[in-house]
Design a protein that fits this description.
The chain has helices at about 80-90, 105-110, 120-130, 135-145, 150-175, 195-205, 225-230, 245-260, 280-290, 295-300, 305-320, 320-330, 370-380, 390-400, 405-444; strands at about 1-5, 10-15, 25, 30-35, 55, 65, 70, 75-80, 90-95, 115-120, 180-185, 210-215, 235-240, 270-275, 335-340, 365. The protein is an alpha/beta fold and about 450 residues long. An eight-stranded parallel sheet has the order 10-9-16-15-14-13-12-11. It has a four-stranded mixed sheet with strand order 5-1-4-6, with no helix packed on it. The protein has a two-stranded antiparallel ribbon with strand order 2-3. Helix 2 links the parallel strand 9 (about 90-95) and strand 10. The longest helix is centred in the last third of the chain and has 38 residues, at about 405-444. GO terms for molecular function: transaldolase activity.
Length: about 450
Amino acid sequence: MATISKLSNPCLNYSSSTSFGIRSSSSAPKFFIDLRTSNSNSNSNRLSGSRLSFVINPSNRGSLCIKCSQADGNGSSVKRTTLHDLYERQGQSPWYDNLCRPVTDLIPLIESGVRGVTSNPAIFQKAISTSNSYNDQFRELVQAGKDIDSVYWELVVKDIQDACKLFETIYDKTDGGDGYVSVEVSPILADDTEGTVEDAKWLHKKVERSNVYIKIPATAPCIPSIKEVISLGISVNVTLIFSLARYEAVIDAYLDGLEASGLSDLSRVTSVASFFVSRVDTLVDKMLEKIGTPEALDLRGKAANAQAALAYKLYQKKFSGPRWEALVKKGAKKQRLLWASTSVKNPAYPDTLYVDPLIGPDTVSTMPDQALQAFIDHGSVARTIDSNVSEAEGIYSALEKLGIDWGFVGSQLELEGVDSFKKAFDSLIDSLQEKANTLKLVSL
Protein backbone atom coordinates (compact mmCIF):
# COMPACT_ATOMS: atom_id res chain seq x y z
CA MET A 1 0.00 0.00 0.00
CA ALA A 2 1.33 3.46 -0.85
CA THR A 3 1.39 5.94 1.97
CA ILE A 4 1.52 9.72 2.05
CA SER A 5 3.72 11.63 4.41
CA LYS A 6 3.97 15.35 4.97
CA LEU A 7 7.03 17.01 3.48
CA SER A 8 9.41 18.73 5.85
CA ASN A 9 10.06 21.30 3.11
CA PRO A 10 6.74 22.01 1.37
CA CYS A 11 6.83 22.37 -2.38
CA LEU A 12 6.24 25.80 -3.87
CA ASN A 13 3.88 26.66 -6.67
CA TYR A 14 4.73 29.47 -9.03
CA SER A 15 3.47 31.34 -12.04
CA SER A 16 4.71 33.58 -14.87
CA SER A 17 8.11 32.10 -15.75
CA THR A 18 10.93 33.13 -18.04
CA SER A 19 14.02 31.18 -19.03
CA PHE A 20 16.43 32.83 -16.63
CA GLY A 21 14.32 35.15 -14.52
CA ILE A 22 12.91 34.64 -11.06
CA ARG A 23 9.37 33.40 -10.83
CA SER A 24 7.06 34.46 -8.07
CA SER A 25 6.10 31.66 -5.74
CA SER A 26 3.54 30.86 -3.13
CA SER A 27 3.83 28.09 -0.60
CA ALA A 28 1.22 25.59 0.45
CA PRO A 29 1.48 22.37 2.43
CA LYS A 30 2.20 19.42 0.18
CA PHE A 31 2.47 15.70 0.63
CA PHE A 32 4.88 13.18 -0.77
CA ILE A 33 3.69 9.76 -1.78
CA ASP A 34 5.85 7.03 -0.28
CA LEU A 35 5.87 4.39 -2.99
CA ARG A 36 7.30 1.71 -0.73
CA THR A 37 5.01 -1.02 0.48
CA SER A 38 3.88 -0.81 4.05
CA ASN A 39 5.31 -4.26 4.76
CA SER A 40 8.70 -3.45 6.28
CA ASN A 41 9.79 -7.05 5.87
CA SER A 42 9.40 -7.04 2.11
CA ASN A 43 12.68 -7.26 0.22
CA SER A 44 11.36 -5.87 -3.01
CA ASN A 45 9.15 -3.08 -1.66
CA ARG A 46 7.42 -3.08 -5.02
CA LEU A 47 3.84 -2.07 -5.59
CA SER A 48 1.42 -4.58 -6.98
CA GLY A 49 -2.21 -4.63 -7.99
CA SER A 50 -4.23 -2.71 -10.50
CA ARG A 51 -4.44 0.58 -8.66
CA LEU A 52 -2.73 2.64 -5.98
CA SER A 53 -4.48 3.06 -2.66
CA PHE A 54 -3.68 5.87 -0.30
CA VAL A 55 -3.62 6.11 3.48
CA ILE A 56 -4.15 9.72 4.44
CA ASN A 57 -3.73 11.05 7.93
CA PRO A 58 -6.80 13.23 8.52
CA SER A 59 -4.64 15.70 10.43
CA ASN A 60 -2.62 16.37 7.26
CA ARG A 61 -4.09 18.69 4.71
CA GLY A 62 -2.74 19.76 1.34
CA SER A 63 -2.24 18.53 -2.20
CA LEU A 64 -0.25 15.54 -3.39
CA CYS A 65 3.37 15.90 -4.39
CA ILE A 66 3.70 12.94 -6.77
CA LYS A 67 1.46 12.44 -9.77
CA CYS A 68 1.68 8.79 -10.69
CA SER A 69 -0.13 5.47 -11.17
CA GLN A 70 -1.46 4.67 -14.57
CA ALA A 71 -2.67 1.18 -15.37
CA ASP A 72 -0.99 -0.62 -18.24
CA GLY A 73 -2.74 -2.97 -20.65
CA ASN A 74 -2.25 -5.93 -18.33
CA GLY A 75 -4.00 -4.22 -15.46
CA SER A 76 -0.88 -3.85 -13.32
CA SER A 77 0.21 -0.60 -11.73
CA VAL A 78 2.58 1.51 -13.82
CA LYS A 79 3.79 4.66 -12.13
CA ARG A 80 4.31 7.60 -14.42
CA THR A 81 5.91 10.79 -13.18
CA THR A 82 7.46 13.85 -14.76
CA LEU A 83 10.82 12.07 -14.35
CA HIS A 84 9.79 9.52 -16.97
CA ASP A 85 8.67 12.32 -19.27
CA LEU A 86 11.92 14.18 -18.69
CA TYR A 87 13.95 11.25 -19.98
CA GLU A 88 11.64 9.95 -22.68
CA ARG A 89 10.60 13.27 -24.17
CA GLN A 90 13.66 15.45 -23.60
CA GLY A 91 16.58 13.04 -23.23
CA GLN A 92 17.62 14.31 -19.81
CA SER A 93 18.40 11.74 -17.11
CA PRO A 94 17.10 12.48 -13.61
CA TRP A 95 19.47 11.28 -10.90
CA TYR A 96 19.14 11.37 -7.13
CA ASP A 97 21.69 13.30 -5.10
CA ASN A 98 21.67 11.29 -1.89
CA LEU A 99 22.55 7.86 -0.57
CA CYS A 100 22.07 6.17 2.79
CA ARG A 101 21.01 2.90 4.33
CA PRO A 102 18.83 1.02 3.76
CA VAL A 103 19.81 1.32 0.11
CA THR A 104 16.56 -0.44 -0.80
CA ASP A 105 14.87 2.91 -0.14
CA LEU A 106 16.06 3.75 -3.65
CA ILE A 107 13.65 1.23 -5.19
CA PRO A 108 10.56 3.49 -5.18
CA LEU A 109 12.66 6.31 -6.60
CA ILE A 110 13.87 4.09 -9.42
CA GLU A 111 10.25 3.12 -10.12
CA SER A 112 9.40 6.82 -10.19
CA GLY A 113 11.98 7.47 -12.91
CA VAL A 114 15.31 8.09 -11.15
CA ARG A 115 18.12 6.72 -13.33
CA GLY A 116 21.27 7.17 -11.24
CA VAL A 117 22.69 8.28 -7.90
CA THR A 118 25.37 10.74 -6.84
CA SER A 119 27.10 10.89 -3.47
CA ASN A 120 29.82 12.97 -1.85
CA PRO A 121 31.67 13.13 1.49
CA ALA A 122 29.03 15.45 2.97
CA ILE A 123 26.24 13.02 2.06
CA PHE A 124 28.07 10.12 3.70
CA GLN A 125 28.90 12.22 6.73
CA LYS A 126 25.22 12.86 7.29
CA ALA A 127 24.17 9.29 6.49
CA ILE A 128 26.69 7.49 8.68
CA SER A 129 26.57 9.90 11.62
CA THR A 130 22.76 10.04 11.87
CA SER A 131 21.77 6.43 11.18
CA ASN A 132 21.96 3.25 13.25
CA SER A 133 21.95 1.17 10.07
CA TYR A 134 25.76 1.20 9.95
CA ASN A 135 26.30 0.02 13.53
CA ASP A 136 26.59 -3.71 12.95
CA GLN A 137 29.11 -3.44 10.12
CA PHE A 138 31.00 -0.74 12.02
CA ARG A 139 31.26 -2.95 15.10
CA GLU A 140 32.48 -5.92 13.08
CA LEU A 141 35.15 -3.85 11.34
CA VAL A 142 36.43 -2.26 14.55
CA GLN A 143 36.52 -5.59 16.35
CA ALA A 144 38.45 -7.01 13.39
CA GLY A 145 41.15 -4.42 14.06
CA LYS A 146 40.51 -2.15 11.07
CA ASP A 147 41.80 1.43 11.30
CA ILE A 148 39.19 4.19 11.04
CA ASP A 149 40.06 5.21 7.48
CA SER A 150 39.58 1.61 6.37
CA VAL A 151 36.33 1.40 8.32
CA TYR A 152 35.01 4.51 6.56
CA TRP A 153 35.75 3.16 3.10
CA GLU A 154 34.30 -0.27 3.89
CA LEU A 155 31.03 1.41 4.95
CA VAL A 156 30.99 3.60 1.85
CA VAL A 157 31.92 0.88 -0.62
CA LYS A 158 29.15 -1.42 0.63
CA ASP A 159 26.55 1.31 0.02
CA ILE A 160 27.96 2.00 -3.44
CA GLN A 161 28.02 -1.68 -4.39
CA ASP A 162 24.48 -2.23 -3.16
CA ALA A 163 23.24 0.83 -5.06
CA CYS A 164 25.08 -0.28 -8.22
CA LYS A 165 23.22 -3.57 -8.03
CA LEU A 166 19.88 -1.76 -7.94
CA PHE A 167 20.75 0.32 -11.02
CA GLU A 168 22.34 -2.52 -12.94
CA THR A 169 19.21 -3.16 -15.02
CA ILE A 170 19.11 0.45 -16.22
CA TYR A 171 22.81 0.32 -17.03
CA ASP A 172 22.38 -2.83 -19.08
CA LYS A 173 19.23 -1.66 -20.89
CA THR A 174 20.89 1.60 -21.94
CA ASP A 175 24.18 -0.04 -22.92
CA GLY A 176 26.07 1.93 -20.31
CA GLY A 177 24.24 5.18 -20.97
CA ASP A 178 22.64 5.43 -17.53
CA GLY A 179 22.31 3.61 -14.23
CA TYR A 180 25.49 4.96 -12.63
CA VAL A 181 26.32 5.41 -8.96
CA SER A 182 29.02 7.97 -8.11
CA VAL A 183 31.56 7.77 -5.30
CA GLU A 184 34.22 10.40 -4.65
CA VAL A 185 37.94 9.96 -4.03
CA SER A 186 39.20 11.23 -0.70
CA PRO A 187 38.61 15.02 -0.50
CA ILE A 188 42.00 15.51 1.13
CA LEU A 189 43.58 14.74 -2.27
CA ALA A 190 42.06 17.71 -4.09
CA ASP A 191 45.52 19.24 -4.59
CA ASP A 192 47.37 15.96 -5.18
CA THR A 193 47.56 14.89 -8.83
CA GLU A 194 49.22 11.51 -8.38
CA GLY A 195 47.44 10.77 -5.13
CA THR A 196 44.10 11.28 -6.85
CA VAL A 197 45.05 8.92 -9.68
CA GLU A 198 46.10 6.19 -7.24
CA ASP A 199 43.00 6.68 -5.10
CA ALA A 200 40.74 6.51 -8.17
CA LYS A 201 42.41 3.27 -9.30
CA TRP A 202 42.09 1.75 -5.83
CA LEU A 203 38.46 2.82 -5.40
CA HIS A 204 37.48 1.56 -8.85
CA LYS A 205 39.03 -1.82 -8.11
CA LYS A 206 37.53 -1.91 -4.62
CA VAL A 207 33.96 -1.26 -5.78
CA GLU A 208 34.39 -3.52 -8.81
CA ARG A 209 31.15 -2.58 -10.54
CA SER A 210 30.82 -1.63 -14.20
CA ASN A 211 28.27 1.09 -13.41
CA VAL A 212 30.29 3.01 -10.84
CA TYR A 213 31.53 6.55 -11.50
CA ILE A 214 34.66 7.62 -9.66
CA LYS A 215 34.26 11.28 -8.74
CA ILE A 216 37.28 13.53 -9.14
CA PRO A 217 37.17 17.26 -8.33
CA ALA A 218 37.86 19.71 -11.15
CA THR A 219 40.68 21.46 -9.27
CA ALA A 220 43.68 22.55 -11.33
CA PRO A 221 45.92 19.80 -9.87
CA CYS A 222 43.28 17.17 -10.65
CA ILE A 223 42.77 18.06 -14.34
CA PRO A 224 45.79 15.89 -15.28
CA SER A 225 44.40 13.21 -12.95
CA ILE A 226 41.16 13.12 -14.95
CA LYS A 227 43.06 12.58 -18.18
CA GLU A 228 45.14 9.79 -16.63
CA VAL A 229 42.19 7.99 -15.04
CA ILE A 230 40.14 8.16 -18.25
CA SER A 231 43.12 6.80 -20.22
CA LEU A 232 43.10 3.77 -17.90
CA GLY A 233 39.54 2.99 -18.96
CA ILE A 234 37.94 4.14 -15.69
CA SER A 235 34.69 6.09 -15.98
CA VAL A 236 34.71 9.42 -14.15
CA ASN A 237 32.25 11.93 -12.72
CA VAL A 238 34.15 15.23 -12.67
CA THR A 239 32.75 17.28 -9.80
CA LEU A 240 32.93 20.84 -8.43
CA ILE A 241 32.89 22.70 -11.78
CA PHE A 242 31.94 26.33 -11.26
CA SER A 243 33.23 28.21 -14.33
CA LEU A 244 33.26 27.98 -18.11
CA ALA A 245 37.06 28.08 -18.28
CA ARG A 246 37.44 25.14 -15.91
CA TYR A 247 34.67 23.26 -17.69
CA GLU A 248 36.53 23.53 -21.00
CA ALA A 249 39.65 22.18 -19.29
CA VAL A 250 37.59 19.23 -18.02
CA ILE A 251 36.30 18.45 -21.53
CA ASP A 252 39.83 18.60 -22.91
CA ALA A 253 41.05 16.26 -20.17
CA TYR A 254 38.34 13.77 -21.15
CA LEU A 255 39.21 13.97 -24.83
CA ASP A 256 42.93 13.74 -24.10
CA GLY A 257 42.31 10.70 -21.91
CA LEU A 258 40.30 8.93 -24.59
CA GLU A 259 43.02 9.60 -27.17
CA ALA A 260 45.76 8.42 -24.82
CA SER A 261 43.96 5.23 -23.80
CA GLY A 262 45.06 3.16 -26.78
CA LEU A 263 41.73 1.30 -26.56
CA SER A 264 40.19 0.17 -29.83
CA ASP A 265 36.71 0.23 -28.24
CA LEU A 266 35.96 3.35 -26.20
CA SER A 267 32.28 2.61 -25.64
CA ARG A 268 32.67 1.54 -22.01
CA VAL A 269 34.68 4.59 -20.92
CA THR A 270 32.13 7.26 -20.06
CA SER A 271 32.03 10.45 -18.06
CA VAL A 272 29.83 13.24 -16.77
CA ALA A 273 30.91 16.78 -15.96
CA SER A 274 29.13 18.07 -12.84
CA PHE A 275 28.48 21.77 -13.35
CA PHE A 276 27.24 23.38 -10.12
CA VAL A 277 24.46 25.95 -10.32
CA SER A 278 22.68 27.19 -7.17
CA ARG A 279 25.90 27.98 -5.32
CA VAL A 280 26.79 30.38 -8.14
CA ASP A 281 23.71 32.47 -7.44
CA THR A 282 24.36 32.35 -3.70
CA LEU A 283 27.74 34.05 -4.16
CA VAL A 284 26.87 36.33 -7.08
CA ASP A 285 23.67 37.55 -5.39
CA LYS A 286 25.73 38.71 -2.40
CA MET A 287 28.03 40.60 -4.74
CA LEU A 288 25.08 42.19 -6.54
CA GLU A 289 23.47 43.24 -3.28
CA LYS A 290 26.74 44.90 -2.27
CA ILE A 291 26.70 46.87 -5.54
CA GLY A 292 23.12 47.77 -4.73
CA THR A 293 22.02 49.51 -7.94
CA PRO A 294 18.60 48.70 -9.47
CA GLU A 295 20.37 47.06 -12.42
CA ALA A 296 22.44 44.90 -10.12
CA LEU A 297 19.52 43.88 -7.94
CA ASP A 298 17.48 42.96 -11.00
CA LEU A 299 20.11 40.36 -11.96
CA ARG A 300 19.82 38.39 -8.73
CA GLY A 301 18.97 34.75 -9.28
CA LYS A 302 19.96 34.82 -12.95
CA ALA A 303 23.72 34.26 -13.00
CA ALA A 304 23.77 30.49 -12.43
CA ASN A 305 21.33 29.49 -15.15
CA ALA A 306 22.83 31.96 -17.62
CA GLN A 307 26.30 30.48 -17.13
CA ALA A 308 24.82 26.96 -17.36
CA ALA A 309 23.25 27.78 -20.72
CA LEU A 310 26.63 28.93 -21.99
CA ALA A 311 28.19 25.74 -20.65
CA TYR A 312 25.74 23.76 -22.77
CA LYS A 313 26.69 25.84 -25.80
CA LEU A 314 30.35 25.00 -25.11
CA TYR A 315 29.42 21.33 -24.75
CA GLN A 316 27.79 21.32 -28.18
CA LYS A 317 30.83 22.99 -29.71
CA LYS A 318 33.46 20.73 -28.14
CA PHE A 319 31.65 17.49 -28.93
CA SER A 320 31.51 18.10 -32.65
CA GLY A 321 34.03 18.47 -35.46
CA PRO A 322 36.89 16.28 -36.77
CA ARG A 323 38.59 15.55 -33.44
CA TRP A 324 35.41 14.28 -31.84
CA GLU A 325 34.26 12.39 -34.93
CA ALA A 326 37.54 10.46 -34.94
CA LEU A 327 36.82 9.32 -31.38
CA VAL A 328 33.21 8.44 -32.22
CA LYS A 329 34.50 5.95 -34.81
CA LYS A 330 36.10 4.10 -31.88
CA GLY A 331 32.83 4.07 -29.94
CA ALA A 332 33.42 7.15 -27.77
CA LYS A 333 30.45 8.64 -25.93
CA LYS A 334 29.98 12.29 -25.10
CA GLN A 335 30.89 13.47 -21.64
CA ARG A 336 27.41 14.51 -20.56
CA LEU A 337 26.81 17.73 -18.71
CA LEU A 338 25.38 17.08 -15.26
CA TRP A 339 23.63 19.87 -13.39
CA ALA A 340 24.59 19.65 -9.72
CA SER A 341 23.65 21.75 -6.70
CA THR A 342 20.08 21.99 -7.97
CA SER A 343 18.43 22.69 -4.62
CA VAL A 344 17.31 26.27 -4.09
CA LYS A 345 19.30 28.04 -1.39
CA ASN A 346 17.18 31.21 -1.38
CA PRO A 347 13.61 30.44 -0.20
CA ALA A 348 12.36 33.46 -2.14
CA TYR A 349 13.13 31.64 -5.39
CA PRO A 350 10.89 28.98 -6.95
CA ASP A 351 11.89 25.49 -5.92
CA THR A 352 12.49 24.24 -9.46
CA LEU A 353 14.61 27.24 -10.51
CA TYR A 354 17.66 25.06 -11.15
CA VAL A 355 15.81 22.22 -12.86
CA ASP A 356 13.13 23.59 -15.20
CA PRO A 357 15.39 26.04 -17.11
CA LEU A 358 18.21 23.49 -17.58
CA ILE A 359 16.48 20.76 -19.57
CA GLY A 360 18.20 19.52 -22.70
CA PRO A 361 19.19 16.30 -24.48
CA ASP A 362 22.20 14.25 -23.40
CA THR A 363 22.32 15.94 -19.99
CA VAL A 364 21.78 14.82 -16.40
CA SER A 365 20.07 16.62 -13.53
CA THR A 366 20.95 15.27 -10.11
CA MET A 367 18.45 16.39 -7.50
CA PRO A 368 18.34 16.12 -3.71
CA ASP A 369 15.02 15.40 -2.02
CA GLN A 370 13.61 18.93 -2.07
CA ALA A 371 14.29 19.57 -5.75
CA LEU A 372 13.23 16.07 -6.78
CA GLN A 373 9.89 16.26 -4.99
CA ALA A 374 9.22 19.75 -6.30
CA PHE A 375 9.95 18.79 -9.90
CA ILE A 376 7.76 15.68 -9.72
CA ASP A 377 4.95 17.77 -8.29
CA HIS A 378 4.95 20.78 -10.60
CA GLY A 379 8.01 20.73 -12.85
CA SER A 380 7.69 21.63 -16.52
CA VAL A 381 9.06 19.20 -19.10
CA ALA A 382 10.30 21.16 -22.10
CA ARG A 383 13.62 21.82 -23.78
CA THR A 384 14.81 25.02 -22.14
CA ILE A 385 18.60 24.92 -21.87
CA ASP A 386 19.18 26.50 -25.28
CA SER A 387 15.83 28.17 -25.80
CA ASN A 388 17.26 31.65 -25.30
CA VAL A 389 21.05 31.60 -25.50
CA SER A 390 21.21 35.28 -26.46
CA GLU A 391 19.47 36.18 -23.19
CA ALA A 392 22.01 34.09 -21.28
CA GLU A 393 24.88 35.81 -23.07
CA GLY A 394 23.35 39.19 -22.25
CA ILE A 395 23.07 38.35 -18.55
CA TYR A 396 26.62 36.99 -18.44
CA SER A 397 27.98 40.15 -20.08
CA ALA A 398 25.86 42.47 -17.94
CA LEU A 399 27.25 40.89 -14.81
CA GLU A 400 30.80 41.37 -16.10
CA LYS A 401 30.09 45.05 -16.80
CA LEU A 402 28.91 45.44 -13.21
CA GLY A 403 32.28 44.17 -12.01
CA ILE A 404 31.43 40.52 -11.40
CA ASP A 405 34.64 38.59 -12.05
CA TRP A 406 33.62 35.13 -13.26
CA GLY A 407 37.14 33.83 -12.66
CA PHE A 408 36.96 34.89 -9.02
CA VAL A 409 33.48 33.40 -8.64
CA GLY A 410 34.68 30.04 -9.94
CA SER A 411 37.83 29.99 -7.81
CA GLN A 412 36.04 31.05 -4.63
CA LEU A 413 33.28 28.48 -5.02
CA GLU A 414 35.82 25.76 -5.76
CA LEU A 415 37.71 26.59 -2.58
CA GLU A 416 34.48 26.56 -0.58
CA GLY A 417 33.36 23.27 -2.14
CA VAL A 418 36.64 21.47 -1.49
CA ASP A 419 36.80 22.87 2.04
CA SER A 420 33.21 21.77 2.73
CA PHE A 421 33.94 18.18 1.67
CA LYS A 422 37.19 18.09 3.64
CA LYS A 423 35.44 19.30 6.79
CA ALA A 424 32.65 16.75 6.36
CA PHE A 425 35.21 13.98 5.87
CA ASP A 426 37.31 15.04 8.86
CA SER A 427 34.22 15.41 11.05
CA LEU A 428 33.03 11.92 10.18
CA ILE A 429 36.45 10.34 10.73
CA ASP A 430 36.66 12.04 14.15
CA SER A 431 33.18 10.86 15.15
CA LEU A 432 33.92 7.32 13.96
CA GLN A 433 37.17 7.27 15.94
CA GLU A 434 35.34 8.44 19.05
CA LYS A 435 32.69 5.79 18.52
CA ALA A 436 35.37 3.13 18.03
CA ASN A 437 37.15 4.18 21.23
CA THR A 438 33.89 3.89 23.15
CA LEU A 439 33.23 0.46 21.64
CA LYS A 440 36.67 -0.77 22.65
CA LEU A 441 36.19 0.48 26.20
CA VAL A 442 32.84 -1.29 26.45
CA SER A 443 34.46 -4.49 25.15
CA LEU A 444 37.16 -4.46 27.83
